[in-house]
Amino acid sequence: MRFNKTVADDNLYYKVVDGRPLILVLYVDDLFLTGDEDMIVKCKKDLACEFEMKDLGLMHYFLGLEVWQGPNETFLG
Amino acid sequence: MMNFKSMATPMEANLKKLHDSTISSDRVDPTMYRQLIGSLLYLVNTRPYICYAVNALSKHMVEPRQVHWVAAKHVLRYLHGTIGYSVRYTTGDGVKLEGFTDSDWAGSAVDRKSTSGCCFNLGSTMVSWFNKKLTSVALSTTEGEYIATCAACKEALWLRKLLADLSGHQIDVTVIFCDK
After folding, report:
1. Residue B37: C-alpha distances to residues A5, B19, B63, B108, B118 (Å)
2. I need a labelling partner for A60 at 20 to 30 A (CA). Which of B59, B116, B143, B160 fits?
3. Do A73 and B92 touch (CB under 8 A)?
Protein backbone atom coordinates (compact mmCIF):
# COMPACT_ATOMS: atom_id res chain seq x y z
CA MET A 1 0.00 0.00 0.00
CA ARG A 2 3.08 2.23 0.34
CA PHE A 3 1.92 4.20 3.33
CA ASN A 4 4.44 6.09 5.43
CA LYS A 5 4.22 5.85 9.17
CA THR A 6 4.36 9.21 10.95
CA VAL A 7 7.15 9.74 13.45
CA ALA A 8 4.76 11.44 15.85
CA ASP A 9 2.09 8.76 16.11
CA ASP A 10 2.34 5.01 15.55
CA ASN A 11 -1.32 4.71 14.55
CA LEU A 12 -1.17 7.35 11.86
CA TYR A 13 -0.13 6.56 8.28
CA TYR A 14 -0.02 8.84 5.27
CA LYS A 15 0.96 9.00 1.66
CA VAL A 16 1.07 11.74 -0.94
CA VAL A 17 0.65 10.85 -4.63
CA ASP A 18 0.91 13.68 -7.18
CA GLY A 19 0.35 16.21 -4.43
CA ARG A 20 -2.84 14.47 -3.31
CA PRO A 21 -2.78 13.35 0.31
CA LEU A 22 -4.30 10.30 1.93
CA ILE A 23 -4.28 9.74 5.67
CA LEU A 24 -5.06 6.47 7.40
CA VAL A 25 -5.78 6.33 11.12
CA LEU A 26 -5.67 2.90 12.68
CA TYR A 27 -6.76 1.68 16.07
CA VAL A 28 -6.61 -2.10 16.64
CA ASP A 29 -9.34 -3.27 14.22
CA ASP A 30 -10.89 0.12 13.47
CA LEU A 31 -9.55 2.42 10.82
CA PHE A 32 -10.61 5.46 8.89
CA LEU A 33 -9.35 7.16 5.78
CA THR A 34 -9.34 10.82 4.93
CA GLY A 35 -7.91 12.88 2.11
CA ASP A 36 -8.37 12.84 -1.64
CA GLU A 37 -11.73 11.35 -2.68
CA ASP A 38 -10.39 9.18 -5.55
CA MET A 39 -7.52 7.91 -3.48
CA ILE A 40 -9.90 6.88 -0.69
CA VAL A 41 -11.96 4.82 -3.14
CA LYS A 42 -8.85 3.16 -4.54
CA CYS A 43 -7.39 2.50 -1.11
CA LYS A 44 -10.63 0.90 0.07
CA LYS A 45 -10.49 -1.48 -2.91
CA ASP A 46 -6.86 -2.35 -2.22
CA LEU A 47 -7.54 -2.95 1.46
CA ALA A 48 -10.53 -5.18 0.64
CA CYS A 49 -8.28 -7.35 -1.57
CA GLU A 50 -5.82 -7.83 1.26
CA PHE A 51 -8.06 -8.03 4.33
CA GLU A 52 -11.62 -8.84 5.18
CA MET A 53 -13.10 -5.35 5.39
CA LYS A 54 -16.43 -3.78 6.25
CA ASP A 55 -17.13 -0.37 4.73
CA LEU A 56 -19.24 1.73 7.10
CA GLY A 57 -19.30 4.71 4.74
CA LEU A 58 -19.02 8.26 5.98
CA MET A 59 -17.87 8.31 9.60
CA HIS A 60 -20.57 8.88 12.19
CA TYR A 61 -19.05 7.18 15.20
CA PHE A 62 -15.44 6.39 16.04
CA LEU A 63 -14.07 5.11 19.36
CA GLY A 64 -16.97 6.58 21.30
CA LEU A 65 -16.82 9.94 19.54
CA GLU A 66 -19.84 11.10 17.61
CA VAL A 67 -19.00 12.76 14.32
CA TRP A 68 -21.22 15.00 12.23
CA GLN A 69 -19.87 15.91 8.83
CA GLY A 70 -21.13 18.77 6.68
CA PRO A 71 -19.81 20.19 3.43
CA ASN A 72 -17.38 22.65 5.03
CA GLU A 73 -17.39 21.71 8.66
CA THR A 74 -17.14 18.78 11.00
CA PHE A 75 -18.40 18.48 14.55
CA LEU A 76 -16.93 16.20 17.18
CA GLY A 77 -19.08 15.49 20.20
CA MET B 1 -30.42 11.80 38.36
CA MET B 2 -33.02 12.50 35.71
CA ASN B 3 -34.72 15.52 37.27
CA PHE B 4 -32.06 17.97 38.21
CA LYS B 5 -31.09 21.52 37.54
CA SER B 6 -28.40 22.21 34.95
CA MET B 7 -25.37 24.17 36.02
CA ALA B 8 -23.84 27.09 34.15
CA THR B 9 -20.28 26.23 35.13
CA PRO B 10 -18.45 22.89 35.40
CA MET B 11 -17.11 23.63 38.84
CA GLU B 12 -17.40 26.01 41.79
CA ALA B 13 -14.77 28.71 41.71
CA ASN B 14 -13.59 28.14 45.25
CA LEU B 15 -11.34 25.13 44.86
CA LYS B 16 -9.84 25.50 48.32
CA LYS B 17 -13.13 24.34 49.81
CA LEU B 18 -12.64 21.04 48.06
CA HIS B 19 -9.39 20.51 49.92
CA ASP B 20 -10.34 21.98 53.30
CA SER B 21 -13.52 19.99 53.81
CA THR B 22 -11.84 16.75 52.76
CA ILE B 23 -11.33 15.42 56.27
CA SER B 24 -14.73 16.33 57.72
CA SER B 25 -16.66 14.90 54.77
CA ASP B 26 -17.96 11.31 54.63
CA ARG B 27 -16.30 8.76 52.43
CA VAL B 28 -18.07 7.59 49.28
CA ASP B 29 -17.78 4.39 47.27
CA PRO B 30 -14.35 4.72 45.57
CA THR B 31 -15.30 2.39 42.71
CA MET B 32 -18.30 4.50 41.71
CA TYR B 33 -16.22 7.66 41.92
CA ARG B 34 -13.38 6.22 39.85
CA GLN B 35 -15.80 4.95 37.21
CA LEU B 36 -17.37 8.39 36.93
CA ILE B 37 -14.01 10.18 36.70
CA GLY B 38 -12.81 7.59 34.18
CA SER B 39 -15.79 8.37 31.97
CA LEU B 40 -15.29 12.11 32.36
CA LEU B 41 -11.61 11.76 31.45
CA TYR B 42 -12.63 10.23 28.15
CA LEU B 43 -15.17 12.97 27.62
CA VAL B 44 -12.42 15.60 27.91
CA ASN B 45 -11.40 14.47 24.39
CA THR B 46 -14.35 16.42 22.99
CA ARG B 47 -15.18 18.79 25.87
CA PRO B 48 -12.18 21.02 26.55
CA TYR B 49 -14.15 23.19 28.98
CA ILE B 50 -14.44 20.44 31.61
CA CYS B 51 -10.71 19.74 31.38
CA TYR B 52 -9.79 21.68 34.51
CA ALA B 53 -12.67 20.37 36.63
CA VAL B 54 -11.90 16.77 35.73
CA ASN B 55 -8.21 17.36 36.40
CA ALA B 56 -9.04 18.71 39.86
CA LEU B 57 -11.44 15.87 40.69
CA SER B 58 -9.08 13.15 39.49
CA LYS B 59 -6.66 14.09 42.27
CA HIS B 60 -9.01 12.50 44.78
CA MET B 61 -9.27 9.02 43.29
CA VAL B 62 -7.66 7.30 46.28
CA GLU B 63 -10.05 8.38 49.02
CA PRO B 64 -13.01 10.21 47.53
CA ARG B 65 -15.28 12.07 49.97
CA GLN B 66 -18.79 13.42 49.72
CA VAL B 67 -17.53 16.89 48.67
CA HIS B 68 -15.76 15.37 45.69
CA TRP B 69 -18.79 13.31 44.75
CA VAL B 70 -20.95 16.45 44.84
CA ALA B 71 -18.38 18.31 42.72
CA ALA B 72 -18.31 15.42 40.23
CA LYS B 73 -22.11 15.54 39.99
CA HIS B 74 -21.80 19.28 39.44
CA VAL B 75 -19.82 18.49 36.28
CA LEU B 76 -22.57 16.09 35.16
CA ARG B 77 -25.19 18.79 35.71
CA TYR B 78 -23.10 21.19 33.66
CA LEU B 79 -22.87 18.60 30.89
CA HIS B 80 -26.63 18.13 31.05
CA GLY B 81 -27.06 21.83 30.26
CA THR B 82 -24.52 21.75 27.44
CA ILE B 83 -25.43 18.38 25.97
CA GLY B 84 -25.53 19.73 22.40
CA TYR B 85 -22.05 21.22 22.53
CA SER B 86 -19.32 19.83 20.31
CA VAL B 87 -16.00 20.85 18.84
CA ARG B 88 -16.37 22.44 15.41
CA TYR B 89 -13.78 22.04 12.69
CA THR B 90 -14.08 24.09 9.53
CA THR B 91 -12.26 23.93 6.23
CA GLY B 92 -10.20 26.74 4.75
CA ASP B 93 -8.83 28.10 8.01
CA GLY B 94 -5.22 27.40 7.13
CA VAL B 95 -2.78 25.47 9.28
CA LYS B 96 -1.46 28.16 11.57
CA LEU B 97 -0.65 26.59 14.92
CA GLU B 98 -0.99 28.77 18.02
CA GLY B 99 -0.60 27.88 21.66
CA PHE B 100 -1.97 29.44 24.84
CA THR B 101 -0.85 28.65 28.36
CA ASP B 102 -1.60 29.75 31.87
CA SER B 103 -0.67 28.64 35.34
CA ASP B 104 -2.08 29.25 38.79
CA TRP B 105 0.62 29.89 41.31
CA ALA B 106 0.71 27.45 44.22
CA GLY B 107 -2.80 26.33 43.33
CA SER B 108 -2.64 23.19 45.42
CA ALA B 109 -3.25 23.87 49.12
CA VAL B 110 -1.62 20.54 49.99
CA ASP B 111 1.82 20.80 48.41
CA ARG B 112 1.84 24.29 46.84
CA LYS B 113 2.45 22.96 43.37
CA SER B 114 0.97 24.91 40.47
CA THR B 115 -1.45 23.60 37.88
CA SER B 116 -0.92 24.61 34.28
CA GLY B 117 -3.38 24.72 31.44
CA CYS B 118 -2.62 24.75 27.78
CA CYS B 119 -4.45 24.67 24.49
CA PHE B 120 -3.50 24.78 20.84
CA ASN B 121 -5.43 26.21 17.92
CA LEU B 122 -5.05 25.10 14.35
CA GLY B 123 -6.61 27.82 12.25
CA SER B 124 -9.60 28.84 14.33
CA THR B 125 -10.24 25.49 15.97
CA MET B 126 -8.85 24.09 19.16
CA VAL B 127 -7.08 20.81 18.45
CA SER B 128 -5.19 19.99 21.63
CA TRP B 129 -5.70 20.86 25.28
CA PHE B 130 -4.59 19.65 28.68
CA ASN B 131 -4.37 20.55 32.33
CA LYS B 132 -1.47 19.31 34.34
CA LYS B 133 -0.33 19.69 37.89
CA LEU B 134 3.33 20.58 37.66
CA THR B 135 5.85 18.26 39.23
CA SER B 136 7.98 20.91 40.90
CA VAL B 137 7.18 23.83 43.18
CA ALA B 138 7.44 27.24 41.51
CA LEU B 139 8.93 29.93 43.74
CA SER B 140 7.37 32.82 41.81
CA THR B 141 4.48 33.38 39.42
CA THR B 142 7.03 33.93 36.67
CA GLU B 143 8.60 30.55 37.34
CA GLY B 144 5.16 28.94 37.35
CA GLU B 145 4.31 30.46 33.99
CA TYR B 146 7.73 29.50 32.66
CA ILE B 147 7.26 25.84 33.62
CA ALA B 148 3.77 25.89 32.09
CA THR B 149 5.14 27.34 28.86
CA CYS B 150 7.78 24.62 28.84
CA ALA B 151 5.02 21.98 29.04
CA ALA B 152 3.27 23.73 26.15
CA CYS B 153 6.49 23.72 24.12
CA LYS B 154 6.73 19.96 24.48
CA GLU B 155 3.21 19.59 23.14
CA ALA B 156 3.98 22.11 20.37
CA LEU B 157 7.01 20.09 19.28
CA TRP B 158 4.89 16.98 18.95
CA LEU B 159 2.13 18.78 17.06
CA ARG B 160 4.66 20.38 14.72
CA LYS B 161 6.23 16.99 14.06
CA LEU B 162 2.81 15.58 13.24
CA LEU B 163 1.93 18.49 10.93
CA ALA B 164 5.33 18.32 9.24
CA ASP B 165 4.76 14.61 8.56
CA LEU B 166 1.32 15.19 7.10
CA SER B 167 2.10 18.29 5.06
CA GLY B 168 5.54 17.17 3.93
CA HIS B 169 7.32 20.34 5.07
CA GLN B 170 8.02 22.26 8.26
CA ILE B 171 5.17 24.57 9.19
CA ASP B 172 5.63 28.25 10.08
CA VAL B 173 6.76 29.44 13.49
CA THR B 174 4.43 28.39 16.29
CA VAL B 175 3.64 31.24 18.64
CA ILE B 176 2.85 30.33 22.24
CA PHE B 177 1.03 32.98 24.27
CA CYS B 178 1.60 33.07 27.99
CA ASP B 179 0.97 35.72 30.62
CA LYS B 180 3.02 37.03 33.43
Report:
1. 33, 17, 13, 19, 21
2. B160
3. no
> pLDDT tens digits, residue range B54-81?
999 998 899 899 989 999 999 999 999 9
Q: Do B46 and A21 touch (CB under 8 A)?
A: no
Query: What is the ipTM score, two decimals?
Result: 0.81
In a mutagenesis test of the B interface, which of A3, A5, A6 is the best target, namely the one with the most B β-carbons within 10 Å? A6
Calculate the average pLDDT of chain A: 89
Q: Which amino acid is at B54?
A: V
HEC per residue, chain A: CCCEECCCCCCEEEEEECCEEEEEEEECCEEEEEECHHHHHHHHHHHHHHCCCCCCCCCCEECCEEEEECCCEEEEC
Considering only CB atoms, A8 lies closest to which of B42, B84, B162, namely B162
CB contact under 8 A, A66 and B86: yes
Q: How far apart are CA B47 and CA B169, in angstroms?
A: 31
B47: DSSP letter: -
For the sheet with B125-133, list strands across it.
B125-133, B115-122, B97-103, B175-177
User: Whole-model pTM?
Assistant: 0.84
CB contact under 8 A, B89 and A76: yes
Q: How many angstroms away from the CA of B2 is the closest CA of chain A? A: 21
d(CA A49, CA A55): 13
Left if phi > 0, otherwise alpha if psi is -120 to 50, otherwise beta: which for A73?
A: beta
A14 touching chain B per CB within 8 A: yes
